[in-house]
């Protein structure tokens, strides 16, 4: 059965952020992910993880900003990453270095580098060249710290103008950079919205070894995975059949209370045992 990590940016939001760790542990999660850690000192987060007996498995590099204060504010100010943005290379590097500091303090094995929205009128070739240069630098910096870096296709409905939207685009960049610690974050929610044919995409890309993390949510409302058009019981069986041993991040918005909506997870071992 897949290993599931609670996404504390979307789940348990009925509680203050630092209290969500214990709530996730009480529901049986052993690992967590979230969007950004930068509003909290790394030692505070490390202590909170330790007290809850949790492993940190993923977070995002800052979506913008070249100072700690600006990095904390960047998401609310509408920034969605600088990977592909010409002229923002120093901001990108500052964000990666900040993320790596947190990754080491939290013993987190991977970080996600947000690609950014495409500037109006910018040639895609220029954006791709910028992304490639930034990825080569980031992969080396992360390798020196023993950390993986991920890039993720995100659907244009939720994030209009995002640079990476398809699995093929992300895997193309990963293949060109050819760094062993650069991989794709495959969110099945985004994949279904943009491309569909999710099971075949899993069968195509997981055997390459270039998928470093998977995330899930129901489509189209981004609620629990047992609601919507995707048959996750079937897809979890596909993951098992393909031998996927990584984490599956639960990046969904609960409909009415996080713990109350975990019936899908409690039922899962019984459902998979029938297949």
From TrEMBL:
Pfam families, per this entry?
AP_endonuc_2 (PF01261)
Identify the keywords attached in UniProt to this record, alphabetized.
Isomerase, Pyruvate
Annotated coiled-coil segments of the chain? none
Is Hydrolase set as a keyword in this record?
Answer: no
Gene Ontology molecular function, alphabetical = hydroxypyruvate isomerase activity
Biological-process GO terms, alphabetical: glyoxylate metabolic process
Q: Which residues form the active site?
A: 152 (proton donor/acceptor), 251 (proton donor/acceptor)
Q: Name the protein family.
A: Belongs to the hyi family.
The name under which this protein is listed is: Hydroxypyruvate isomerase
Top-level taxonomy: Bacteria, Pseudomonadati, Pseudomonadota, Betaproteobacteria, Burkholderiales
